Amino acid sequence: MKAPGTVTxxxxxxxxxxxxxxxxxxxxxxxxxxxxxGARRWRSGxxxxxxxxxxxxxxITAPAQAGLLSVRVASPRLGRLEAVRRTLAVSVIAPTTTPxxxxxxxPTxxPTxxPTxxPTxxPTxxPTxxPTxSPTDTPTVAPxxxxxxxxxxxxxxxxxxxxxxxYIGSGDSMRWDACQTITWSYDATAQPYPGAEADMTxxxxxxxxxxxxxxxxxxxxxAAFTVDWSNPDEDVRLAxxxxxxxxxxxxxxxxxxxxxxxxxxxxxxxxLDASHASVPGxxxxxxxxQVMLHEIGHATGLGHASGREQVMAPVATIYNTVFGAGDLxxxxxxxxxxxxxxxxxxxRAADRDTTVxxxx
Length: 360
Ligand SMILES: [Zn+2]
Known about the structure:
Layout: E1 5-8, E2 12-18, E3 29-36, E4 43-49, E5 55-61, E6 67-75, E7 84-93, E8 174-176, E9 182-186, H1 196-211, E10 215-217, E11 225-230, E12 244-252, E13 263-273, H2 288-299, H3 325-333, H4 349-352, E14 354-356
Parallel strand pairs: 1-7, 8-13, 9-10, 9-11, 11-13
Antiparallel strand pairs: 2-5, 3-4, 3-6, 6-7, 12-13, 12-14
Helix pairs in contact: 1-2
The chain binds zinc ion (ZN).
Zinc ion binds next to helix 2.
């Protein structure tokens, strides 16, 4: 899974990009608006103009409260050029170090100013918007902040298409044995925040609830399913914006004996990238909990979904912080509903057909 952009509270968010402009190089008006997760109204940020190549740089100041932010760049229709509207998600996080206010010299002194926490960490990711899409998904009416709906539709259930899920790898159907407890281990050595172990435990419980599988934590070295923290220097699969990888080890089985299932999952692996220090812990927002669910999902047999509202979408954003309809179908399909596995119909051939798969 890949990480969203992040910025610290009160920090500047620079939004850069390029939009199509006329051959003559007309400058186009650009407007940036933003909205905190759960807020109804879009707030105004910068308004400016592109240069003659259509390039723009706009900025907004991140709110003082941590959370998720939708940032939208819009440009009205210009002659034959369609209006442009792009939205991206930015994680606003608290600074990792908070300055300690200097105590007043004597108890009787009257403070003349309130100590103000100043972020000492600069954003490591600058969100960049590069509109590249076809005209079909751009509105024909120039969007302005006042055009935006002031009320968000209230979701009534799991979002997205119930069929929006896949098996990981070549598409063979697979699952863990419904009649065995799945043992897992957790190496806390390199974990980047104290609550990471509790978050991982909760993630396994959430997957257990939706699949029916039973997970049991065991000591390091004894588990079929290993969870570890690493970094891009140790594991090149974590390079760039990748925050975690996960996948199963599988063996071919006889579908006729296994309710149609083609592969048995006999091992699982999740590796998370501790170098992404700005990703927040916990669940219910874009952060490590969401990444853990995604990677356990891979190791439970699921590939990527196409809709952004599924936890199994390739990128962690504000849109897929809870299981979507496709996730729930997929988790049920790789769950215990299809019964125990007959593991060894091919005798020794099964051992030669062990396949390891992983995805970001
Ligand atoms: Zn993935």
